[in-house]
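Summary of Year 1 activities. Much of the first year was spent building the evaluation harness for sequence design. The harness presents a backbone, in tokenized form, and records the residue chosen at every position. We chose the following record to illustrate the format because it has been used consistently in internal testing since the harness was completed.
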């Protein structure tokens, strides 16, 4: 089974793997809203989602890297949670959200099944902040997706993370075919040099360690706290000789990815 990916905006994607339909980090509020992330940080949303939430259709599962920041789960996204078969997130997030939410610790897994398609979901470590800020910011998770007829390896979704040594453990445990990376260098004036998602240089480092066939950058557009736009990241990928591995997804248009 190939994976059909529709990038809706920020970290929101619709993954269609056989008959299984998975939504990630649902953010569907209209542009213009101002959001507070705690400790004096906040951002304004600049762009609308490429697809309206009512057009998504059936959702077998939602993969939620974390629930406590609106650029990964906003008001309209929260309204979708009860409509999913299950919501998979962090242990702390599952306690806050309740209902149909399942919390996984790092390396724990569960299975999503629909008709004849079966996807194994494994939570993998993520670190949402540099310079020890992640201890204050809170827990996030990445995900590994595995199914039986993958040709080249698993699909990895980084979640909101910076570079940390846990990336080496992911590379040790899994052969990654496709790496979806939350870039954008999310940061704030009040927090100085601290960053909360990957810089393009860190993304280069992850790609070199995981060595995927395809790297897909997301989470770089649509908010005022994203400091590295696509053009900056493209220059880094070209300079590192990775431009042939990197695939940028058009917003709102399904793209078939061989995994």
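For this record, the design step produced the sequence shown next.
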């Amino acid at each position: 089974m190939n994976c059909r990916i529709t990038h809706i905006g920020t970290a929101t994607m619709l993954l269609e793997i056989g008959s299984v339909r998975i939504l990630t980090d649902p953010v569907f509020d209209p542009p213009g809203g101002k959001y507070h992330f705690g400790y004096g940080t906040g951002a304004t949303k600049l762009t609308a989602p490429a697809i309206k939430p009512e057009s998504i259709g059936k959702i077998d599962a939602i993969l939620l890297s974390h629930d406590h920041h609106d650029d990964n789960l906003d008001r309209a996204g929260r309204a979708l949670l009860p409509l999913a078969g299950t919501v998979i997130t962090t242990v702390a997030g599952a306690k806050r959200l309740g209902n149909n939410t399942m919390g996984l610790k790092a390396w724990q897994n569960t299975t999503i099944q629909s008709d004849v398609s079966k996807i194994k979901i494994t939570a993998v470590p993520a670190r949402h902040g540099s310079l020890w800020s992640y201890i204050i910011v809170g827990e996030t998770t990445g995900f590994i997706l595995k199914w039986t007829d993958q040709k080249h390896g698993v699909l990895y979704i980084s979640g909101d993370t910076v570079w940390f040594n846990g990336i080496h453990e992911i590379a040790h445990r899994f052969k990654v075919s496709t790496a979806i990376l939350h870039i954008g260098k999310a940061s704030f004036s009040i927090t100085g040099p601290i960053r909360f998602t990957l810089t393009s240089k860190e993304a280069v480092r992850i790609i070199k360690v995981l060595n995927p066939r395809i790297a897909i950058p997301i989470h770089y557009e649509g908010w005022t706290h994203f400091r590295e736009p696509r053009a900056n990241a493209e220059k880094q990928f070209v300079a590192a000789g990775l431009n042939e591995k990197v695939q940028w997804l058009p917003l709102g248009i399904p793209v078939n990815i061989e995994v």
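The radius of gyration is 17 Å. Quantitative recovery figures across the full test set are reported in Table 2.
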